[in-house]
Structures are given as C-alpha cells and as structure tokens.
Amino acid sequence: MTNANPILGVYLSDSLDLDAVYGDALRSAADDVVLRHPHEIDNPEDVRFAICWLPNEQAFAAYPNLTLAMSIGAGVDALLAHPGLGDEVQIARVRDPHQADLMAGFAAHEVLNREREFATLERNAAKAHWEPLPMRAPASAKVAVLGHGTMGRAVVEAMAALGFSVRVACRSQPQAPVKGVTYLTGDSAVMEASNGADYLINVLPLTASTENVLGKALFAKLAKGAWLVQIGRGEHLVEDDLVEALEAGQLAGASLDVFRDEPLPADHPFWQNERLRITPHIASDSLPEVVAGQVVDTARALRDGQPLAMGVDRARGY
Description:
This is Glyoxylate/hydroxypyruvate reductase A. The protein is an alpha/beta fold.
C-alpha cells in the first residue's frame, strides 16, 4: 500500500551507482521514502534529501528545498567541505556496526601480518624452506589507536582481545572503557598515545585539526621500525614525510587503505615501494540493508521534524 505522505530524495554520486547497490534494499524497507536518480526527478523543488558518495561541486545546485545530505559511508568530510551545502542543510551519516567489525578485522590482519612475519613465512614456503621464526608475547607490543568513534572502538576491542598493549587518543574518556586499555585525551593525546608505539592505527575522522596529523613529528614519536596502519582518510597522511620515515628506518612499513587521490594513480610512487601494503579502500564497507534502514529512519525523522539520530555535529566534524 502506497504511503500518502512520501518524502522524495535523490542519489548523488559520479563514481558509484547508488541505486544499483542500495535500491533494492531501500525499496524493500519502505514505500514512503522514495529515491531517484537526478534524471528521474520531474520537479527538483520536491526533493528534500540526498544520499551521497563524493558528490561533485554542482550536485546540490538543482534542489532548492534540500534540507538533508546523508553520506552512505562513515566519513562526512566531503559533505562538510562541500561548497554547495549551506549551514541550513543537515548532514548525516551511516553508522554500521558490521562495518566497524570489518574495519577491526582489517586492522588486526595488518598488525598480525607484520607481528608474526607472515609475508616472510609465505616467501619461505614458496621456496620449500622450513624456518620457524621467533615471536614475542602480544603484551610486549605497543599499539596506538587514534580515534575512538564507532570504528575506533571496534579496533581497540580487537587489539585488546589479541593481548596487545593498547593506548588510545580520543576526544573524551569513554563511558564504557575497554578493560586494560589506556585512554588519553587533550591536545597532546595523539603524541602521548604514539610515544614508543610499535604499531600506529589511524581511525580518526577528517577535520581541520586532524588533517596532516600523520607526519614527521608524529612518526618521530614511534618506536624505531614501527608500522603504520592508515584506515582513516587520505588527507591525514603527509606522503613525503611517510617516504622519509621509511627511508630513515623510523617506519619499517605501512598498510595504506586510503589516499588523497582515489583511485591511486597508476604512476604514483607508492605502488613501487616494497615497504607499503596498498589496498583499494576496502578495509570495510556497509551492508545494503543497514544503509537502507538508516536512510529510511533518517528521512522519516526529517519529514516528521524529529531529531536525526544519525546527524553530524558540523562544529566537531563527526
């Protein structure tokens, strides 16, 4: 039965067919929340909200009554910085616990791959060479995690469960801290958490204060031969400083899943650097049914004048 009071939204992405990915789940979730491609919109004035993935600079210009832009991912930096979104437009994002689990699994994989030297074992196996490698107790390895949002907490829980010594840089002390984990807050938290760390896992949101945080000064705080796991945003990393730290041996290597330019250009020197493990922004993803449910709930709240549970604080940037 068709709802008498539907709310109309538009898909906005140049790089992803959002309807192909999420359309079936959205249509199954509700008939009062309607989403269309831009070319399917007869009256742009009727559009109240958009779900987005990296919208272009003119993406919002055609919709004068738009009051909500929602990111299908956890990050909203592209929306916060978008020149076409005034302060009157609310911003929201997806918060998927399954996505956080995937992110934690990726981080754990990268840390364990380095800690247990699995790459060396694979090379030895390819040569039919039997050589057990030394190992240490996980508690002897220091892991610094930057960020304690939905993603960051899942990463912290995974690292703690594996027995590592974990320190976290976060905005405020959590109400339900993970047992055995040290939490650091304040302006110096990132540096303090990273001091002497063997592994640095970045899960920060991108804000004016976190841009370029992964640079020379921070790398110098780490233990000699540390490993970076970069799963935040590409703009967090000062690429030249990373290369310098690798060449100096301050960093043994890095796992990079996010980049300033995506896809990473084929001629980018990172591809040729054997100390880097590069993945194409696949540390995690959102399940279509979860995205659909949160889009529907958010659109209904907008229509009914209710607070947005998935809303973003523009001042904080998340």
